[in-house]
Fold:
Amino acid sequence: MDGKSLNITEDLISKLKEIIPGAFTEDKINVEQLKQVLGESISTDTDRYQLTWAGKNEAYKVLQIPTTETLAPNFNGSVNWDDAENIFIEGENLKVLKALQKSYYGKVKFISIDPPYNTGSDSFIYPDNFSETKEEYLKKLGEKDEEGYMTREGLFRPNRKENGQFHSNWLSMMLPRLFLARNLLKEDGAILIHIDEHEQANLSLLLNEIFGEDNLIGNIIWDKGNPKGDAMGIAYQHESILVYAKNKEKFLSETDLSRKKKNAERMLKKASELYKLLNTIDIPAEVKKVHKEFNLPDEILTKAKRKFTLEEINSQFNTWIKKQGLSGGEAAYNKIDENGNVYRLVSMAWPNKKKAPDDYFVPLIHPVTNKACPLPQRGWRFPTSTMKELLDKGEIVFGADHTVQPQRKYLLKENMSENLPSILFYGGSDDSLLRNLDLEFENPKPVEFTKSLIQAFTKPYSSDIVLDFFAGSGTTAHAVIECNKSDNGNRRFICVQLPEKIDEDSDMFKKGFVSIAELTTERIKRVFTNSNASQAQKLNFNNKKPIGFRSFVLTASNFKIWRGDMISSEEELLNQISMFNDSIKSNSASINILWELVLKSGLPLTEKIEKVELDKSEIIYLTEGHRMAFCLDKFTPEIQAKIIELAPSVFICLDSLFNKDDRNKTNTQLKLQDNGIEFKTL
Structure:
């Protein structure tokens, strides 16, 4: 364990070695051999279609620098730590994404982010001096004030339009983060990015480079229904949502990309109410309304009494449908059949321009006239065998006579979802919802809209991980909670947010919140608390545990880092050696060291850890399934015996606990190996 995050360059080289081992000579890429293997598929021309900008090479260099930083647990900022499956991380998202590589590489199903739109007033991290050293860049990247909040004097600052590298700065900020995000996706995973007109074109090209244009799933238009009032030209009332898969073929084979029809339940309920009137004697609702409004004589009501037929019920249902403002996919279900089912009619014509096979031209016979009904010009959509099955199931509807072409019946109860369309209409806000939480955010994304997207890209019962590394107001976390509440799912979230200072004139600052990360954490806390309180009032047949989240903070490593690149004299070498008499920093708490080892061992941040105490100073930390055990405070013969009894696969111990007694350490290693336990010291 080298104490660093995944080395991106080494990871890419190892993958290339697996695919094209012949392209390497003496462990280096042989470009000429690579050209020979790939033949005409490789291009070395400088004049070709590509996205480039000032600082692109430097952005790749930033990507390639591993981080030594780690994540420290914040127990006070968490809810139900022991059983929590969700994660919130306070910290600069580039470093956090690097820190997560070993634990979450290829494990995230869905990434949803709302990055800075680069309008000219956004603040984000970017380098503006590409000649500075790596050390200078990393120092500025982590600049904070005395209280630990990100400052705008470092790299976190506004990117003004007057800046000569306005678009370049934004692209340099996005490139390494998107590359690292792709690593975290499962093979059937996808990323969804909100963006407006300022950088939509550039973002499309950047995503083509990182994900491959063949993995574009689509560009969703979010129509907010409210044009921008400060527009100088065309008043935009929409945003773009770009969607890319890690592997499009696998994504589409595993993901339905559908959404629940928002009003389907309400439509079925209304239909059920109307169907109950079938064959009853009553007065139409319209007559009752007119009678009351104009104070008409009661005999009008008596004369208006009639038996409710299916035709009358369908008429009332149609009238109700037209007043509801339903989507086209919902409004098409405007009929009620003799069994009370809500349905729509769909053409069964062959969908292609080419003529169908002969078996698709067998006519249907009208059940009343016994005459053949008209055939579609290019034939039926289905062969004879399928048409017979549909007839037997009552899913083909005939007209009044044989002159009308039959159609297929689709029941609403069997089609409660619809394909995700390319245009989504949603103009609502969460003002009332946030007021109830007694919190305020600047331009928060609506929970209901975000929830619908998460449900389209994830499955309820697959423990899908949803990642948002521009967490902002915490809408993604809130939406995941609401998704699980509505369909009893088990999705999990990982949200990352900078400790960016809040405006001191804001109401939230006056209420004691100093950073956006604090405010986001508090929102997630309140949502979980409310959800658990609501669940506690219900009968708990499934023995469901309260839900929660674990909070972590990005911090410097607890281990001293060997800096060979900083040694230029014998004196500096001696200083480095003296520092490493003990590799642990003096102010490091055992619990923080533990979680750094968990993270850098590739275990998830939700890992369940058992604290095995022999006495107050003899402690073993044991992970779930006995995969790993850690000893951080004291090592004794009693601890060694307990380790052998617990039989973890790997035992990690601090080297300093052996007090430079190499014989004792060697004997320990041999005993553990004899018992099938891998032994590591740090």
